[in-house]
Design goal:
Largest sheet: 9 strands, mixed
Oligomer: single chain
Number of strands: 17
Order of helices and strands: EHHHEEEEEHHEHEEHEEEHEHEEHEHEHH
Radius of gyration: 23 Å
Strand order of the largest sheet: 1-16-15-17-14-12-13-11-2
């Protein structure tokens, strides 16, 4: 958010991949998963005219969603028979072709694949070993995964002394002589996904600028289970590119302990490299609006994944829950006034090219976009919807109470609370500030209102970007609740008379 994962890519630091920190798409994401994370403020449902108008339709959707298995069946096939889907691989293009056929069979209209050129990063063979000398010498393999887009080591690998670094501030305080030729190991502790992934994203270049030979980063998770977490990095063009990998929490802690005893060396071997770009594509299908077909509510997730696990929660659950939502609306014969468009974006994890290409395709019709909804935080127990795209969501921005927002924003939150009241029976009857994703960020930057499901996210950051991101982590009941919430939300937004407020977001380099 994703990631990077929008990874919110990092899912929601993924704007950095396009050179701009665009917005913090989920309120409180910077501390998500952290033991000191504050409770996210939410607003309860308040029934109003929208609830009165759409209750019968919403009840039909919720009832159908409780028993419909098509979405989860499709997710099962995607995970077990297509599997991991890294950009540039044949598996991703298989998924793209399968996704388009899935939409056609579901009866969606105007199904197409928008061509998108995506990067081809190849992991290759990789390994690492930590070593010490003397009495009680240590020589043990590292639990490691190379970071996406990393360069490789020389064929013989790199063997160098480790310098342990607990923070960027500590690195800045070091002289180049303290870092030159060494392998920097970042372990800032666990302060939430948004904070920790800055070390994964920017650490390699910051250490490389001081002469580091390579970088190891503590995996961005609070769960210590000897499972390394991959994710993308962003090289600074002004700094040397150095090999970089994530290591397990346990290995990072052990290196920290050993460094207090004396010198620690690491041998690192990585075959990672880039190859020529490959054509893939965004998969698009829709329910054409009955009265204002030019106006669009777009909804989806990203079809690519990392090259580990099955891409089940990240983001198979997102594309299949949004597919199930649109499919339910179609099966029930509901005809919204506006068009509901389903998109499976490509290359969210290591480039965001799908979202960028989609925005270019929209062109000057951006004013016709009523809302953009992205699901990219897994399908755990849903709590409600987040609504974002405001400057107040930017990292470090001062919190703003809804009562202090402009009148149009207050009316939008009231409308969403009204819609949320339709979903009390499944427990998703709250609204929170902050919602969006990496794929829709280019739309949101130009003023399209953004939304995303808000879940408990109890284990999402334990699983995603790892070998553990497999189908068994997706509970069918909670999956269906997410789909039901998305279906009601999208249908009402596409049919109601008014529109939500959106604001252009200032691009910041």
């Amino acid at each position: 958010m994703v990631r990077e994962k929008g990874d919110l890519c990092m899912k929601y630091f993924a704007a950095a991949l396009t050179g701009a920190a665009l917005l913090f798409a989920q309120s409180g994401l910077s501390q998500m998963g952290s033991p000191d994370a504050p409770a996210q403020p939410t607003m309860p449902a308040v029934a109003g005219p929208l609830a009165a108008k759409y209750k019968a339709d919403a009840d039909r959707i919720l009832q159908a969603a409780a028993t419909d298995e098509d979405g989860y069946v499709a997710l099962t096939y995607l995970c077990d028979h297509v599997g991991k889907r890294l950009s540039g691989t044949p598996q991703l293009n298989t998924a793209v072709e399968w996704g388009a056929e899935l939409m056609r069979k579901a009866g969606l209209q105007n199904v197409m694949v928008q061509p998108v050129m995506v990067p081809r990063w190849v992991r290759g063979s990789e390994s690492g070993t930590m070593m010490t000398d003397g009495v009680g010498a240590v020589n043990r393999p590292l639990h490691m995964l190379g970071l996406g887009m990393s360069v490789g080591t020389p064929v013989e690998g790199i063997t160098a002394e480790v310098v342990f670094v607990p923070s960027f501030r500590a690195l800045d305080a070091m002289t180049p002589e303290q870092v030159k030729g060494k392998i920097v190991v970042f372990n800032p502790g666990w302060h939430g996904y948004g904070v920790n992934t800055q070390y994964r994203t920017y650490g390699p270049s910051r250490a490389g600028a001081k002469g580091a030979a390579a970088v190891l980063v503590r995996s961005a998770t609070g769960l210590a289970m000897q499972i390394p977490h991959t994710g993308t990095l962003v090289y600074d063009a002004k700094a040397p590119k150095v090999p970089a990998a994530a290591i397990s929490v346990e290995d990072a802690l052990m290196i920290e302990r050993l460094c207090k005893e004396g010198p620690v060396r690491v041998h690192l071997q990585m075959e990672a490299h880039m190859e020529a770009d490959v054509q893939a594509g965004n998969v698009i299908g829709e329910i054409v609006g009955s009265e204002q077909p030019e106006q669009v509510v777009v909804m989806g997730g990203h079809i690519d994944s990392w090259d580990v696990g099955q891409g089940a929660q990240d983001d198979g659950s997102g594309i299949m829950a949004t597919y199930e939502a649109v499919s339910l609306i179609h099966k029930l014969g509901l005809k919204p006034k506006r068009t509901i468009r389903l998109v499976f974006w490509v290359n969210e994890e290591n480039g965001d090219r799908g979202g960028i290409a989609y925005r270019k395709m929209v062109g000057d019709k951006i004013g016709d976009y009523v809302a953009a909804i992205e699901m990219d935080e897994g399908a755990e127990k849903p709590l409600g919807m987040g609504y974002g795209g405001f400057e107040s969501m930017m990292p470090g921005a001062k919190a703003v109470q809804v009562s202090q927002m402009p009148a149009e924003d207050q009316r939008s939150f009231a409308a969403l609370q009204d819609i949320a009241s339709l979903m009390g029976s499944i427990g998703t009857d709250t609204v929170s500030q902050g919602g969006g994703g990496s794929d829709i960020e280019p739309l949101v930057a130009d003023g399209v209102p953004s939304l995303s499901p808000r879940t408990t996210a109890a284990h999402y950051f334990d699983w995603h970007h790892t070998e553990a991101d497999t189908l068994d982590k997706v509970d069918p009941v909670e999956f269906n609740k997410n789909a039901a919430m998305l279906a009601v939300e999208a249908y009402v937004l596409a049919d109601m008379d008014g529109r939500l407020a959106g604001h252009k977001v200032t691009m910041r380099e």
